[in-house]
């Protein structure tokens, strides 16, 4: 009896060709944007010593880590994110690179989360970091890059919210452990638990101002409101956010809200924090987030300014689908069809001529006749068929059939490539961009 087929592990996905094309479309758009902003790509290992992520990621990430021991008993973990790896790499090898160091990476991350639409155990991030630049300038560059990447993909309905973690952390003057607990409760919007925890710390009176500030969202007036609620502790971060807003306008980024309740789920943030939502995604609508953080000192180096973000590419694909962005795979340009067995050698010659010229071309591999070949070419979405018939070939010709219009034209064998290129439409990406 046949056994049940294997399934992929919970929270992981296979990507069929059209799903893969969508992921790759998004990847290309994001990679290109990072390059236009002067970021250089790096790669780090898929697994790291688990200790690296324990240093400062926070309980959220630690509970979700895929950690395991290797055969020598080393404690390892699949990367739940990139930032800790990038800073480790910076400290071990990239410290002497010219500053600011602007790097990005694209790859899969792993978190043991409850899977649902937009939330997976294996997912893909576009992660960008700037190390060693002045703070307002690099924070603005980072936010502008995240927004530009999503626009390049074609997303129009994104919402950017910018806050500053220093505002609440300098008001909540508690030892680091207690402060981290309070910020986590704020991040999870567990306001009742926050109240109880503040009361336990003998600071119940802080609940009102803190919860009010955490709800503030909107234009520059919310900064004044925060200052009047928190007083002196908010002064510096309010000034910072105002200047950051001005710097962002230099990039043409004006369409954002200050959101003073943005806390982020990772423990290493120290300054500006931001999140980007795609409202059409429902529960898992956060497509990206980041901010200024401090990890070089935690991981054994000297302090340096660091700021960055990661965009969840799987959610960007979902969002692009919702917004109707075309992410179709590139069609095969030519499907070569020999008319009769005697034309097979000639057809292969033409096939390889096209492939060597860099055109995508395919041919029958299972002995189908011409009409079945045309059906197949149609089914795989080939743009043209190149029909190689005996009579035409004797005159140095082939027939090129446009599969969309059904129109057939005789073309000299030496001209096939030019004819196909002339007729090839611009790629789907360019079409959406020009639309
Ligand atoms: P994060 O907010 O944990 O930040 O993740 C960034 C993005 O990755 C999220 O906004 C979301 O779109 C996506 N994401 C996270 N978990 C999942 C999941 N289980 N399934 C699908 N998508 C997911 C970071 O990772 C920081 N390292 C960002 C950063 C870089 N901060 C400074 N530099």
Whole-number average pLDDT?
A: 93
Main sheet: which strands, in order across?
Answer: 1-5-6-12-11-10-7-9-8
Beta strand % = 15-25%
Structural class designation: alpha+beta
Poorly predicted regions: 424-435
User: What Rg, in angstroms, do the CA atoms define?
Assistant: 27 Å
Dominant shape = elongated
| Secondary structure tally: strands | 17
The helix content, as a percent range, equals 40-55%
Question: What does this 3D model show about the protein?
Answer:
By secondary structure, this protein is α+β, with helices and mostly antiparallel strands. Helix content is 41%, strand content 21%. The protein has 17 helices and 17 strands. The protein has a nine-stranded mixed sheet, with helices on both faces. Helix 5 (135-153) crosses helix 11. The site of histidyl-adenosine monophosphate has 25 residues, from strand 6, strand 11, strand 12 and helix 12.
Quick synopsis:
With 435 residues, this protein is α+β, with helices and mostly antiparallel strands. Helix content is 41%, strand content 21%. It has a 9-stranded mixed beta sheet with strand order 1-5-6-12-11-10-7-9-8, with helices on both faces.
Topology record:
Elements: H1 17-36, E1 40-41, E2 47-49, H2 50-54, H3 59-63, E3 67-69, E4 75-78, H4 83-94, E5 101-110, E6 122-131, H5 135-153, E7 159-164, H6 165-171, H7 176-187, H8 191-200, H9 207-215, E8 217-218, H10 221-230, H11 232-249, E9 256-259, E10 269-277, E11 286-293, E12 306-312, H12 313-322, E13 334-338, H13 344-356, E14 361-363, H14 370-379, E15 384-388, H15 390-394, E16 397-402, E17 408-412, H16 416-423, H17 428-434
Parallel strand pairs: 1-5, 7-9, 13-14, 13-15
Antiparallel strand pairs: 2-4, 3-4, 5-6, 6-12, 7-10, 8-9, 10-11, 11-12, 15-16, 16-17
The chain binds histidyl-adenosine monophosphate.
């Amino acid at each position: 009896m046949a056994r049940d087929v294997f399934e992929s592990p919970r929270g992981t996905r296979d990507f069929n060709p059209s799903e893969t094309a969508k992921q790759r479309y998004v990847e290309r758009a994001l990679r290109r944007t990072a390059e236009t902003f002067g970021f250089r790509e790096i790669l780090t290992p898929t697994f790291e010593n688990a200790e690296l992520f324990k240093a400062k990621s926070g309980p959220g990430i630690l509970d979700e880590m895929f950690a395991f021991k290797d055969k020598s008993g080393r404690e390892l973990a699949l990367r739940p994110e990139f930032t800790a790896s990038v800073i480790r790499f910076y400290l071990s090898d990239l410290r002497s690179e010219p500053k600011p160091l602007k790097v990005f990476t694209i790859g899969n991350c792993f978190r043991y989360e409850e899977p649902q639409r937009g939330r997976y155990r294996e997912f893909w991030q576009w992660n960008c970091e700037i190390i060693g630049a002045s703070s307002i300038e690099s924070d603005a560059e980072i936010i502008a890059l995240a927004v530009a990447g999503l626009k390049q993909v074609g997303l129009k309905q994104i919402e950017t919210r910018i806050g500053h973690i220093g505002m609440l952390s300098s008001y909540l003057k508690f030892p680091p452990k207690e402060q981290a607990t309070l910020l986590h409760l704020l991040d999870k919007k567990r306001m009742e638990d926050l109240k109880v925890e503040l009361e336990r710390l003998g600071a119940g009176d802080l609940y009102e101002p803190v919860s009010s500030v955490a709800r503030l969202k909107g234009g520059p007036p919310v900064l004044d409101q925060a200052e009047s609620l928190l007083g002196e502790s908010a002064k510096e971060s309010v000034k910072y956010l105002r200047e950051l807003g001005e710097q962002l306008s230099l990039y043409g980024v004006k369409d954002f809200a200050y959101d003073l309740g943005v806390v982020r789920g990772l423990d290493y943030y120290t300054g500006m924090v931001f999140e980007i939502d795609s409202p059409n995604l429902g529960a898992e609508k956060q497509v990206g987030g980041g901010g200024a953080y401090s990890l070089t000192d935690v991981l054994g180096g000297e302090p340096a300014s660091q700021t960055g973000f990661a965009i969840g590419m799987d959610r960007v694909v979902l969002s692009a689908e919702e917004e109707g962005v075309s992410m179709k795979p590139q069609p095969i340009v030519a499907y070569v069809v020999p008319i009769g067995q005697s034309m097979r050698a000639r057809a292969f010659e033409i096939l390889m001529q096209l492939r060597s010229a860099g055109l995508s071309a395919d041919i029958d591999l299972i002995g189908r006749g011409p009409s079945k070949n045309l059906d197949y070419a149609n089914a795989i979405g080939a743009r043209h068929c190149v029909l190689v018939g005996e009579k035409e070939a004797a005159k140095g010709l082939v027939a090129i059939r446009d599969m969309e219009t059904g129109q057939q034209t005789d073309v000299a064998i030496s001209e096939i490539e030019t004819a196909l290129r002339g007729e090839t439409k611009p790629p789907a990406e360019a079409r959406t961009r020009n639309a």
